[in-house]
Every structure is written in structure tokens, then in C-alpha cells.
Amino acid sequence: MTDARGSAGRHGGRNARQAPGTPCWVSLMVHGLAATQQFYGALFGWEFRPGPQQLGPYTRALLDGREVAGIGQLPPDRQLPIAWTPYLASDDVNRTAEAVRSCGGTVGVGPLDAEEAGRLAICSDPSGAVFGVWQAAAHLGTAVTGVPGTPAWNELMTFESASVVKFYTTVFGYEQEPVVSADFDYVTLNLGGRPVAGVHGVGHALHRDRGPHWMTYFEVADTDEAVDRLVDLGGHVLKPAQDSVLGRVAMVADPEGARFSLLQSPR
């Protein structure tokens, strides 16, 4: 993650359809839905209400009545990695799914309708990192950003950036902005000159049990306090809080093992 981060709106809200390629939603599939709701409700102050049920029990997390994320329940027989998944906006999910396939990616679920909310597909890039594609109808995506408890940034952790960046720029039309450094492999993905996501090549530092994966950063008021609260709630610290050019960041995991980061932006 670099100081080029430019999440969609440090202005508090989103009311319009997002440009294609913009991260517009994050979703988590778990085995224990009630326990996971309790964890994130206590950590971020979220409340929950039912969402579309096409893939099983699913709820939308609300912050002050505005939708910020989704949490669903995996079938008991599905032993999939528990992970936060970003959804990238599309004007035509069928066409995007075809582009994913033609560029070497995989479409694992869909495209399918999510009631009146919109249309989705769940895909993976050529390195195996999973992401969603969302064509909005009634549900435009995350309704508020830039305040504690909301997604702040999405970053792909992968072996090396070059090949996978080519995939994402071809499918979604991103402009790429690489960091010029001999020992730091990082590319910011821009849309219309605005940073929307990052790709971090970490080589052998990538966890073998996870492989390439997307990491969601959530805004918090105080990273250290949030880490303490997370541990009290049964979460785990993967990388302790540290200062960066963006603020104070910690990498953590929830009780089921879903990894995410806590970010306290500079004031």
C-alpha cells in the first residue's frame, strides 16, 4: 500500500453508480454467520439486515443505516477459504465475465441475478486471486466511505505485479502507475486518473497457505484501540500496528481466519 491511495470518496457517501472497475462492495462468506455478525458488530458498530439469498443465507452490514459490506453463510460441505472479497463494478457482467475468461481468468459463480439488487459473478485472476463483479440495479454498493467502519482500500497481494496487472488493465481498463523502485513491486490501478486499488508483488513473502489474494482495509478511529478490541473479541493479529505514510495500519484476522487490515488515516 502506498501514499497513492485514493479510496472512492473521503467525502462520507456514495449515491451514484460506480464507474466500471471501481471496487464497489466487499463481501465475506463464513461458516458461523451469527458469530461473525456479533464479531464485526462489536468491532465496527455494524448492524445487519437480510440481503439476497441466491447463494445461501446473506446479510448486509449497516453503519448508521447505510450499507457498507455483506456477510453470507457457506454451505456446511463447502471448505472454501474464508476471505473478504472485493466486488468490481461493471456495466455488463456477462461481457466482463467473457473478458475474464479470454484473458486467462476463471468464472467460478454466475453470472446470475441477485433478486432486484443487481447481477454478479465471482471470478479469479490467472494467479488464483478471487474477486467479484457487480452490475448494479437497486443495490449500488457501499453507501458510505471515509468514516470508521467502512472499506478504505483494496489491495491484491500476489507474487509479482507485471503479469496480473496486465490481466486487470485489459479486463477493466485501468491505467497503471508503478512505483519506481528496485526492491518494491507495487502498482496503483487508476480510473480517470484516480487511484482505486493496488497490486503488491511480495514474492516469497506471500503466505503459501493463502496464495495470491485481495486484502481489504477498513477505516478505524484508532488502530491500537481497534486491535485491542479485536483480540478481546477472539480475532488475531498477523502484523502489529505500525505507522506508514498513510497512517497507522495493522493486519489482522477474524475468528474464522478471514484476513483484513485496520487503517487509521492521518487527521
TrEMBL record:
Source organism of the structure: Streptomyces viridiviolaceus
InterPro entries the UniProt entry points to: Anthracycline_SecMetBiosynth, Glyas_Bleomycin-R_OHBP_Dase, Glyoxalase_6, VOC_core
Domain VOC intervals: 22-136, 150-265
Name of this chain's protein: VOC family protein
Lineage, top ranks: Bacteria, Bacillati, Actinomycetota, Actinomycetes, Kitasatosporales
Regions annotated as coiled coil: none
PROSITE patterns: VOC
